[in-house]
# Entry
Amino acid sequence: MAQDGEAFQLNRGRPMTIAAVGAVVILVAAAAATTPGFISIQNFRAILAATTFVGLIAVGMTVIMISGSFVSMSLGTMATITAIFFIYALKFGIAGAILSTLLLGGVLGLVQGFLIGAWDANPIIVTIAAGALMEGVSVALTGGQALSPPDNNYAFLNTTPCGIPVGTFVLLLLVAVVEFLLRRTRLGREVYMLGESRAAARAASLSLGEVGCWVFMLAGFSAALAGIFLASFNHGASLLLNRGTLNYDAIAATLIGGTAIVGGRGSVWRTLLGVILIATITNLVLLRGYSFGAQIFFKGVIMAVFVIVIHLRSQRGR
Amino acid sequence: MPGKLTLGYPSARTLRKSLPLVVLAVVVVALIALPLYSSAHASAFSINNSLQNAASLGLLALGVGLTMIIGEFDLSSLGVYAIGGMIAVKYGADFPVMGMLLALALAVVVGGVQGWIIARTEISSVPLTLGGYIILLGASHLVSNSQTLAYANYDVGMWLDGIFGFVLSPRIAIVLGIFVLTAAFMGWTQLGREIRAVGGDRRASRASGVQVDRIIVGIFIASAFLSALGGALFALSSAAAKPDLGLSPFIFAVTAVLLGGVSLAGGRGGAMGIVVGVVSLSLLETLFSLLGTPIYMVNVIRGALLLVVVVIEAPDLRRALITVRRAKSA
# Structure
């Protein structure tokens, strides 16, 4: 899937991506300057909140993309499912709820990761199918009702120490941890190697199933974290939480961060920049009163443009 | 299911060949035997209903299947399916044919642009068509202002779904005709063989003089065209169009295509296999609705079935099985 030898010529096509990111940043800055109500503490808080939800999911999306599995179509659904579970599990105490929600996210990811990593099952289709399956099971268990928290023991998750939401701190921590895992550990190197070329990774006798499991388990954790904060932010959870565009936003942010859609390249902190950009764009579009349709439309265009630009860059490098 | 596979399955190929017919046979037997295990029974009406459902989704499946046969994957077809129905309803109020033509024209443009980009830049079709899907989803919301549009001209839907010959209707006949034409084209023309060759080995077919780029563009146009037609027929016969149909039409289409023996790796499968996949899947859904299975359960089964067919299709599962078999015989 990934082109051989591409990694050694990383830098040649970079100006094109920088130009694309630069163009978007300038456009956003210009729009921000001319939009009334954009520059206010309240609005920046709203942007930070949006950054947190999309960002947590985007961290998982980035690792998946680097590993060569394109994207997951089910991370948004997993965030919703884990949010519902979190609210349900609150009755066992906050610590138990957080731990068991993370465990659930990890296990849900792990199963998908095994099918994709060990057997090379098509990641798009596996995650679409898994999403439908998980949604069906969650309706079976909850009767499709919205859940309300039994207690407000989760309130500290909504606090803002130093004016910054707890979720944002958790996001930064997650980015640091995952960046460390990717750069400094054997697992990280194996993830890049698998994304670069599955054949080469197999030839180097990596355990592809194991790497796949780790990647999707990590993504499951990040979706579960998003679920925990989504649930506490909304003081409840139902499948309707997924009616937005969480998953697509995360994909767009990952692409804007320069992660190669075919795998082998990318970094989590650059995804974070992509997330901030996407959150700002969403915010601007809302402030300017564009419709939901226009919002999705713009994001689709950005996504398509970045996919093409990054692809051309990798080709030019060859 | 992995356990079942390791216990003496002859080969993945036999499995692939026999799977569509086995599934169809099982579903038909289950339908016929319905009175034996429940109070429901299958009537000509329920079969007709099932085929109506299959007809529109069948075109989406055919579009997706054609791109898979050339080794690509068109996620945007789902978006074309949605916006095709939307345009047909919105602009076809007075002249249904007009709305239909507009929808099809848009589809040709969408398919042409995506196909051209894929052929020219050799970009992977998954991310590109994912972008395309999201753009179309946005466009569909824009066209409808995020509302479900009703179609006042009920006569069109009545005509499309009017029953004749026990289980047929014009809608079913149109779709069946398209499938037969596609099968004949793929089987009996030089171009049909070339299309399959592009999916089997792109480099080799280019070397032997096949116009690979043109075929890619053509297939993407065909995929979008069929998806828009399916979406338009669906919207006109149900007299309404929703801006976002969710992923479930796509889940149906991909499951049907994989059940029908088309390979994600490209080069294998055809329209007749897809028809068998579509019919068995929609009969299966009829079986569930006759049994009164709750919708969430149907969703669970849909997801599980898609997981099963995509795992059977997984390249390294076969590799793992071969290793196991060798280890046993050694």
User: Anything to note?
Assistant: Chain A has one domain: 6-316.
